[in-house]
Amino acid sequence: MSISVKPSVHLLLLLFTILCSSLTPFKAFSESDSDRVAELLNLQSRSKSGVIHLDDHSLNRFLTSGKPRSYSLLIFFDAAHLHDKHELHLKEIRSEFDLVASTFISHNKNTPSQSKLFFCDLEFKESQSSFALFAVNTLPHIRHVDPQIENPKDSARMDQSDFARLAESMAEFVESKTKLTVGPIERPPVVSKNQLGFAVVALLLSTPFLVKKLLDGDTLFLDSKVWLGLSVFVYFFSVSGAMHNIIRKMPMFLADRNDPSKFTFFYQGSGMQLGAEGFAVGFLYTIVGLLLAFVTQILVRVRNVTVQRLVMIFALFVSFWAVKKVVYLDNWKTGYGIHGFWPSSWK
Amino acid sequence: MLIAYGEESRNSNISFDPVGTGKSVNEASSSGSCAEDLEGEALLSAVRSASGNLSQDCVKTGKALYPASSLSPGRGKCSSNFSFRPSGDAVILGCDKVPSYISRSVAGSYDNEAVAIFALIFTFYLYIKTLNTGSLFYATLNALSYFYMVCSWGGYTFIINLIPMHVLLCIVTGRYSSRLYIAYAPLVVLGTLLASLVPVVGFNAVMTSEHFASFLVFIIIHVVALVYYIKGILSQKMFKVAVTLVVTVGVAVCCAVIGVLVALVASSPTKGWSGRSLSLLDPTYASKYIPIIASVSEHQPPTWPSYFMDINVLAFLVPAGIIACFLPLSDASSFVVLYIVTSVYFSGVMVRLMLVLAPAACILSGIALSEAFDVFTRSIKFQLPGLSGNSHSGAGDTSSGSATIQDNVAKADKQSSTPKSEDTLKERPSRKNRKKEKEHVEKASIKSHIEKRLLVLPLEASIISILLLILLGAFYVVHCVWAAAEAYSAPSIVLTSYSHDGLHVFDDFREAYAWLSHNTEVDDKVASWWDYGYQTTAMANRTVIVDNNTWNNTHIATVGTAMSSPEKPAWEIFNSLDVKYVLVVFGGLVGYPSDDINKFLWMVRIGGGVFPHIKEPDYLRDGQYRIDSQATSTMLNSLMYKLSYYRFVDTDGKGFDRVRRTEIGKKYFKLTHFEEVFTTHHWMVRIYKLKSPKNRVRGKSKKSKSNSKPGSTTSSKSGRRKKNPWH
């Protein structure tokens, strides 16, 4: 029974909302709940992802002063100046949040649930007092504000674990808190169908030309310099531990917690490395071999003895420095003390 | 203000990454027998002979792979002068002590990879040999050595992908020859047949995607061979007609075959690739989907110190070797380049594959070293005041000297007329040809060596360079000896630590295994994390539930689930597995970082992968595994926490964990379903016994309880004496 009643109630409510919203110009002074819902819906439709951008003022209007409320808010606390801190994953979580929002909106379009939950975001720089209002001092942070909640500090916080598994777990959180259905989350495919089709057609069209060129033998394939450059690059890329950085998603460097203008480029401890550190050492690894090859293969053909001498001195100096630096860095990073084993009678 | 706590989670706290130098604590210690030492020695000498001593002109890895050296007539004499053959010997000098290889061949850590790397290099050597000679005899040997490789290590897929890649490269760059066909086709046919004889491989040799590349290239090489054949027998015009015909038919056939292959591949869920191979192609694959692979410390991506540890100064020399291989590029040298490039990439994905990189690095740095020594010694030789006059007068001991000059000039010749030398390189099927070409070069060089300038570098700079290179080599030797002595020879079952008051020995593992073997029944089963499986089997002689064979994931997930569950469900799981004892490794007292709490992450992940009621987020506080007061209740109630920290507070009164550097969250608790039976001297291994179910069921069947209890104890006592005759 109750199930069958609910929709009709909602329908009435919606009708009421629409009526009210059409009457808004006449009731500009005291905003009712339905006004706010209408405006939120309006704001939502204007936003690309369906996430409403709030600030101190509008938050006050929709949340603190707006009572009673028929809707709940899911607020994402954002800070643009922390976006470049990859370890916070703010951007990723934000895009997942957007995904949940758009899924919810498209799934609940033209149903009463669409005015039950709104996805909002707050930016730290422009709404600091709202951050204080919610007592938010760590990011990433997502709050769910129930209609019944009086004090924003009591609102439910989405656990770290809830956005650990991205949009799906966020949706679970939302569903458990609001009893609304978010709907199946559909990620946009990496390559759209049109792009894929275009790529296939382009590939098919270019195949005969490629084959022709290949048979004629004037492609890049036959230029050994390209191969040489590629293989040295792959070598450099691998010994610099770049795969480690990709797999572990390591940042290029760490900013000092206490003094953001200082950066840590080298991390002590062999289990981990930072991006810039890897590339620096990879460069040192590679440069010695390149210089050696340059000296033995090219410099040897130079006629001018002075040039030879100068370049060799330079190469020797750089190589010596590079090896010394790597040995030093390795000892520093791993803490190993490499020593020889000499006959005991020598001591 | 805003605190970025994500950062914290990365920097500090529990380090769940016990990767050190590429040797997993788990696996290395499991193979802790030193009986195979001799075999390792034999293997080393086999590698040595393969790369240097077998016969004059062929079996040098370095030389065979580097035909440029065999082209230059002066080298042979030069080498006899120095008693130091170029490349080959430099390679041996690098290869016989490279730490990466030492790590698998020293006593205590002797592993099947030690055999496999020899087989790998030997297969490559024979492939190159066949490619250079076009001899079917070597092609057959090649297939046999491939079989040897398949028998010894799963890494054989590296061969069966690398060689097709090289063949394809040769075809694409227009280097197809009948020698290439002879080197490849028998290998695929014979090799696949032989490989499918190995039980572990079986039909995988034709069914899995790892092998498809070789079949595809097999088809391509036949098409190409056909084209070349037709081209040979037809006139130019007829050939064009034939090409259109063959191309249409060929494309149709190819499409059909590729279609079948694609359908086959697509029908399997992992696209026919095994998890390990997939994680090589897409390095982030394993960390996303296969925790059992991602959990092994050998499968972690290495950081740059790993390269310095494992190939040391060779890392500096390899780029020079790569460049030397390109000047000029031949079939063989392009193979070496391909080998180093693929292996260095793979080693970047998995630290364990450093093992495959090591020989390649040795070969290339050997080439680089011999090139460098060649240039520098030559520069010194002809510019030393006493010698230069002699050599220019062309008399006396200068046979080697003039040879070198010829060598230089020959080289210069080669460079100046690249297309010609390319041609000659391509068409070297018979020895006659080569001889002719040698003579030709020799003649030309003798003619022109007066006009041409000597290719030398300034004297003093060359002397310094040689000294520095020798210094580099000396450092390499010191490092390798150190690595072999300190890092790779230490048995990981007995741990030592140096402190200001001397050497400390932690012999807790053996203590625990000895206790197990002396105090438990022969057929009692012991549950522990899989890392200790082989050790327990071998040293305690007890059956384990999971061991280092990670072929089957479900068992491991079951144990992981039990460890992550509260006591009662854990007891039920263990009881259903007929487990009597549970063994946990705990490093909190002495600060041993690769203990079970640090591996707990993987128990939860692997367990959760099979049993969805284990949810990783339940164990995480702010994205971290914590065991301090901030820990989640699921964590504090998990069996692993309880077994690790039971009575821990008794040690120092505070319960301070020296690995996690924090006080534990829950200090006083009792165990309901387990009882502590043994804890080793440093608390590194703790053994618990499952309480018998009768104690729990109160009042249900008092009679049977009172009856059975004394009976069971006596029976177990007498049983122990009876069943365990060895102790």
Characterize the structure shown:
The complex is a heterodimer of chains A (347) and B (727). Chain A is an alpha/beta fold and 347 residues long. Chain A has two domains: 26-178, 3-Layer(aba) Sandwich (Glutaredoxin), CATH 3.40.30.10; 223-346. Chain A has twelve helices and eight strands. In chain A, the strands form two sheets. A five-stranded mixed beta sheet of chain A has the order 1-3-2-5-6, sandwiched between helices. Chain A has a two-stranded antiparallel ribbon with strand order 7-8. The longest helix of chain A is centred in the C-terminal third of the chain and has 30 residues, at 305-334. The model of chain A is unreliable at 1-5 and 23-30 (pLDDT under 50). In chain B, strands 5-4-6-12-11 form a five-stranded mixed beta sheet, with helices on both faces. Chain B has a two-stranded antiparallel sheet with strand order 2-3. Chain B has a two-stranded antiparallel ribbon with strand order 7-8. In chain B, 46% of the residues are buried. Chain B is globular, with a radius of gyration of 32 Å. Residues 1-85, 388-438, 447-452 and 701-727 of chain B have low confidence and may be disordered. Chain B is mostly helical and 727 residues long. In chain B, helix 7 (88-95) packs across helix 22, helix 9 (112-133) runs antiparallel to helix 10 and helix 30 (553-564) runs antiparallel to helix 31. Classes of the chains: A alpha/beta (347), B mainly alpha (727). Chains A and B meet through strand 4, helix 6, helix 9, helix 10 and helix 11 of A and strand 1, helix 1, helix 19, helix 20 and helix 21 of B. Strand 4 of chain A pairs parallel with strand 1 of chain B, so a sheet runs across the interface.
